[in-house]
Here is the input.
Amino acid sequence: RDAFMAAPQLDTPTLRALPGVEPGAIPQARALRLSDDPCPHRQRGGRGQGLDLLHSFLNTRGEPYRSAMSSPLSAERACSRLSPHIALGSLSLREVVQATTARQDEPAAGRWGGALASFQSRLAWRDHFLQKLEDQPDIETRCLQAAAERLRPRESDAARLAAWEKGETGLPFLDACLRYLAATGWLNFRARAMVMACASYHLWLDWRATGAILARRFTDYDPGIHWPQVQMQSGTTGMNTPRIYNPVKQGWDQDPTGAFTRRWLPELAPVPDAFLQNPWRWSGAGSVLGRRYPEPVVDVATAQRAARDAVWSLRRKPAARAQVVEIIERHASRSPRRMVQPSHGQLSLDL
Here is the structure.
């Protein structure tokens, strides 16, 4: 992989219009009598946009990358935002790796050294996850650990699935993230991990149903990244420690002022800050819940305990434990030298 990334870049192809045909401006959806884009704040595409993002990330925006990528308040700017360009090909991964390497070779003060090293690590992990799908294409449709097929019902609860998809679960930070995704086509890494984990553990939904919804919404969707990560966050790989994110705690930790949650859930305007992430504990909850905003579809603590018990009960079974050895041999990283596992799984590896 390192040799491939260090090889000379190919020339950018030159695209020419057909002789005698004036390309003109790309018409808007309305002019073509198509419905409006349901994702109004989607990133703009094109190679020029990608190159601008690469330059600004490596020279101005990227210094706080490691610390700022976790919160939706800061990640939108601090992350590179290159993942759609890499997934769709307006930038090649090789040119991104080489540009980052060149920047690492320059003198850099402050937090730049750690930020660039962390970014390079995630670029390498991207290739690692792509290889998983190359090696085992049915990761898109079957649990990596066969025993996990019996963990959840294949037919997901329709009401819970719809509430999750619409951002109407009654769990504020989770709903805010899902509504933000619908409007922008992007989420930062921790939010991606949380929305998938909450769907899988708290709502007990099958990963194939929820993963397909996210695949349609992510502007940077890449099956080689998406499906291994979806399974990782659902506890069906057998080799990754289950991470059951508490959406209430994540709300307090990642949105301490409530600015993000309030922006995407204006229904909660009357709720005091102290109860924003768990409004059901507020004495005035009856004026909002079940009226402006839904009651929570599950009790977070109860659902979390039930999910943890079910997952670990499965993992302790001899047949499940025996298969883990095979899964690790086939899919785990062989390189302890550089590719340090990110501390949280990311559905885009946070590029």
Residues 225 and 321 are 25 Å apart (CA to CA). Residues 112-135 form the longest helix (24 residues). The chain is about 50% helix and 0% strand. Confidence is low (pLDDT under 50) at residues 337-341.
